[in-house]
UniProtKB/TrEMBL annotation:
Name this polypeptide is given: 26S proteasome non-ATPase regulatory subunit 2
GO biological process, one term: proteasome-mediated ubiquitin-dependent protein catabolic process
The species this protein was found in: Hermetia illucens (Black soldier fly)
Keyword Repeat: yes
Listed Polar residues bias regions: 1-11
Length: 883
């Protein structure tokens, strides 16, 4: 085989005579083109140097002017393939700089079709500097960008500077030709994303920032944080203060949040930012030391009008009338023989369940039928600690209504019954949840009982303050709770840890970290690992919720703990720190931990005792594996692909995992899909609810309630009614079914516990903290939920949020407008202006939004202040309307 045939074999395109795609002989035009190119290359090999430059320019013009289908290689390039190696030799023999540069340009373009390693960019760097790379077309640009990205890591500093010159030519071209994603990818590969500021304009800004935001979950730290800071700077540069605030909330940095808020001069944008910040429950830091806030903005930030807006929603939807638990149970639909033989009328456990359900379904409405019909007698239909939860449900009924609710609860504070009085203290905290008032009524009422000798008063007041000030990082609330950490009562310490974790969630509060760490060390020395001590370890993690890198110092400090407490605490801190990030390495680490089996450990200890680490043999993996399963869901819940992969892993864990893993899998599934009842998840949890292991069944039933919380899902309601019949004789299971039914109809279907909002791009730390507190209570159902501590279920209250879209005019008056509501469509990196929703229906606000739904204005009369129509939205009149 001669050299020409070998070259033809190596080349991806045949160097022989051109052949048409349909197998017919080449046309005369194609034949002439090939002959002309052969002749021009032949001239370059001749001794007459005056022919070189004209020949090179002719070859260049033929390549540039070629037009063909995008699915095939241009014919000039196809016919020049056989001359590729010869062109490289010709390039070496040239001495004239102009000819050398022109030849290098042609070889660089030819290298695009040869699959050569980085030769395209090499010859481009030796080409004519006056020739812009965009002259050779989009495909050449893409190939050049890929080679720059591959050669960048190993390039020396001087070579990187030369590559950077090419990058600065490529980026503006790709942005101008609707390839913003490619420009971002190239800049991220060369670690020069900050150069975007030079090339971005107001038209390309929305697409670029949207793409970068969706890249964040897939980028390792600290690059993900750097990308968010770049998006923040771009938003501020283009005057997009609201978008800047969204990014600041994702960063969860109070200083940046305060800076963005106070740098905004537009009153309407400030109102809209107020709604967004108050939804995060972190407005406390903005209000403090701020004298320039208007009354309207201050009311929005403090959520003082949240109950008013919610009642407008209730009136518009015509759901003000109170409901009874029986309206949810629908026992009349059960077969007659079942209801007659299996109903346990007026039992304390059934009445306790009814108290919870009554509070849940009428939450925030202030109107129910149980207390109207029975009055205070209903409280005494419960027994002992059940009275606490029944009284506390009044706070849930009056949620967010400080003025009206405190007046009603006040009379219970003077009760001679300790259980009623304790429940009223908890009710005070519940109704104050998320609402700030300058007189601090929750602290004023509850702080007096923090030093009480009665443990019930102390515990309920502590939990009440925790729920009332959740997410606020209030120095007033934390200052009153910190002295109690010296207590020796583990029940008090457990509830205290929950409260501190809720108040300071995601703040990295150093003082609370130090105090909690001291208690954790004390617990580990006492070998304390009970139901309440778990909350101490959880609270330590909640302080670093979503803070990633900031948790490293704490993780180093945990080295002083003995095993298994060190591993247990580290897992909790890490999974909280990386909550919602989708960090694959952390998920793999947790799954590897879940793959261990106690039988394998025992066998290894017997057969190979010398090689087995003595520390590892002493570790009891049951509690560690339990939280590791929750950690998988917590880390992966931020993005859909990670959630789907975690869901698959949970199926394997249920088949092959230890009992401690199997009981926590349903809770992990609920954590990854709160208030989002997908059909596959409902079917899986329904299957687990009939498991032979009662702990698995308990967790699955409770998880069904969390998955369907506030959705009024008809399919789930039917499943729960069937479960109520199935477990009619099982007191504990029936109690959990009732709780799940109450959660499903939370606020008559107007509320949500989802920790994500703003098109699922912003995580609400306080909601995640609240859900984790509930799940840690559900890990030990026997001692907590079924025991005297069922009131810990109310720790879900800080996660409650209306799942509505309500629109207001510039004076914050309710403004009904038509909107289209449909399933959200992913438009990231798509050219043009693609549709953002599909299968939509047109309704008039206020409306309820479900998981995965998105809304658009269906009128041009008004312009929304924010792009994401969720929650409370301010509209301004369109000045161009009607012209």
């Amino acid at each position: 085989m001669n050299s020409e045939e070998m070259q033809s074999k190596k080349s991806p395109i045949s160097a022989k005579a051109p052949e048409s795609t349909d197998g017919k002989p080449p046309s005369d035009e194609d034949q002439l083109l090939q002959e002309e190119l052969d002749m021009l290359v032949g001239r370059l090999s001749e001794s007459n140097s005056e022919l070189y430059l004209p020949a090179l320019e002719t070859i260049r013009d033929l390549i540039k002017s070629s037009t063909t289908s995008i699915t095939s290689v241009p014919k000039p390039l196809k016919y020049m393939v056989s001359h590729y190696e010869n062109m490289k030799k010709i390039y070496e023999k040239f001495h004239d700089e102009k000819c050398k540069q022109s030849c290098a340009d042609i070889i660089s373009v030819l290298a695009m079709t040869m699959g050569s390693s980085n030769e395209c960019v090499f010859y481009r760097l030796h080409g004519d500097p006056d020739v812009n790379v965009s002259d050779w077309g989009h495909e050449y640009i893409r190939h050049l960008a890929s080679e720059i990205a591959s050669s960048w890591p190993s390039a020396c500093r001087s070579y990187q500077e030369r590559l950077l010159c090419l990058v600065k030519q490529i980026v503006p071209y790709t942005i101008a030709h609707n390839a913003e994603a490619e420009a971002c990818d190239l800049l991220m590969e060369v670690d020069k994303l900050n150069l975007l500021d030079e090339f971005i304009d107001i038209e390309s800004y929305p697409k670029i920032t949207l793409y970068l935001q969706h890249c964040v979950p897939f980028v390792p730290e600290p690059e993900n944080v750097n990308i968010l800071h770049i998006i923040l700077d771009l938003a501020l540069r283009f005057g997009e203060n609201y978008e800047a605030m969204r990014v600041a909330l994702i960063l969860n940095d109070s200083k940046i949040i305060r800076k963005v808020f106070h740098s905004c001069d537009d009153y309407l944008v400030k109102l809209q930012m107020g709604f967004l910040v108050s939804r995060q429950r972190i407005s406390f830091s903005i209000i403090e030391n701020s004298s320039d806030l208007s009354e309207e903005v201050a009311e929005i930030l403090t959520n003082s009008r949240l109950n008013v807006y919610f009642m407008i929603l209730a009136r518009e939807l015509d759901i003000l009338e109170g409901k009874t638990p029986e309206d949810v149970y629908k026992s009349h639909l059960d077969p007659a023989r079942v209801t007659m033989s299996q109903t346990q009328a007026d039992s304390a456990r059934n009445n306790l369940a009814a108290s919870f359900v009554n509070g849940m379904i009428n939450a925030g409405f202030g109107i129910d039928k149980i207390f109207v019909d029975f009055g205070n007698k209903w409280l005494y239909k419960n027994k002992d600690h059940g009275i606490i939860s029944a009284t506390a449900s009044i706070g849930l009924l009056r949620l967010w209504d400080i003025d009206g609710g405190l007046a009603i609860i006040d009379k219970y504070l003077y009760s001679v019954d300790d259980y009623v009085k304790s429940g009223s203290l908890l009710a005070c905290g519940i109704l104050n949840c998320g609402v700030r008032d300058e007189v601090e009524p929750a602290h004023a009422l509850l702080s007096d009982y923090l030093g009480s000798s009665n443990n019930l008063f102390k515990i309920c007041s502590i939990l009440g303050i925790g729920i009332a000030y959740s997410g606020s990082n209030s120095s007033l609330a934390l200052g009153s709770l910190r002295p109690l950490l010296n207590s020796d009562d583990i029940e008090v310490l457990g509830v205290l840890a929950i409260s501190i974790g809720l108040i300071a969630a995601g703040t990295c509060n150093s003082e609370d970290t130090e105090l909690l760490l001291q208690q954790v060390v004390t617990c580990s020395m006492r070998k304390s690992f009970g139901s309440h001590s778990r909350f101490l370890y959880l609270a330590l993690g909640l302080l670093y919720l979503g803070r990633q890198c900031e948790s490293e110092t704490l993780l180093e400090s945990l080295q002083i703990l003995e095993e298994p407490y060190q591993t247990y605490t580290k897992i909790i801190v890490e999974m909280c720190a990386f909550a919602g990030t989708g960090n694959v390495l952390k998920v793999q680490k947790l799954l590897h931990l879940c793959s261990e089996h106690s039988e394998q450990r025992k066998r290894s200890e017997k057969t190979d005792e010398e090689k087995t680490d003595w520390k590892f043999k002493k570790i009891d993996l049951s509690d560690i594996q339990t939280v590791a399963v929750l950690g998988v869901a917590l880390i992966s819940m931020g993005e859909d692909i990670g959630t789907e992969m975690a869901f698959r892993s949970f199926g394997h864990l249920m088949l092959y995992g230890e009992p401690c893993i199997r009981k926590s899998v349903p809770l992990a599934i609920a954590l990854s899909s709160v208030s989002n009842p997908k059909m596959g998840i409902l079917e899986m949890l329904n299957k687990f609810s009939h498991d032979n292991d009662m702990e698995v069944a308990h967790a699955a039933i409770f998880s069904l309630g969390l998955v369907g919380a506030g959705t009024n899902n008809a399919r789930l309601a039917l499943l729960l009614r069937q479960l109520a019949q199935y477990y009619a004789k099982d007191v504990n299971n029936l109690f959990l079914v009732r709780i799940a039914q109450g959660l499903t109809h939370l606020g008559k279907g107007t509320m949500s516990l989802s920790p994500y909002h703003s098109d699922k791009q912003i995580m609400k730390p306080v909601a995640v903290a609240a859900i984790l507190c509930v799940l840690f209570s559900a890990i030990d159902m026997k001692n907590l939920i079924f025991g005297p501590y069922h009131y810990l279920i109310y720790t879900f209250v800080p996660a409650i949020e209306p799942r509505c879209l309500m629109t207001f005019d510039e004076k914050l008056n309710h403004l009904p407008v038509p909107v289209r509501v449909g399933i959200a469509v992913d438009t990231v990196a798509q050219a043009g202006k693609p549709k953002t929703i599909t299968g939509f229906q047109t309704n008039t606000t206020p409306i309820l939004l479900g998981a995965g739904e998105r809304a658009e204005l269906a009128t041009d009369e008004y312009i929304p202040i924010c792009k994401h129509l969720e929650g409370f939205v301010v509209l301004k009149r369109n000045p161009a309307y009607g012209k």
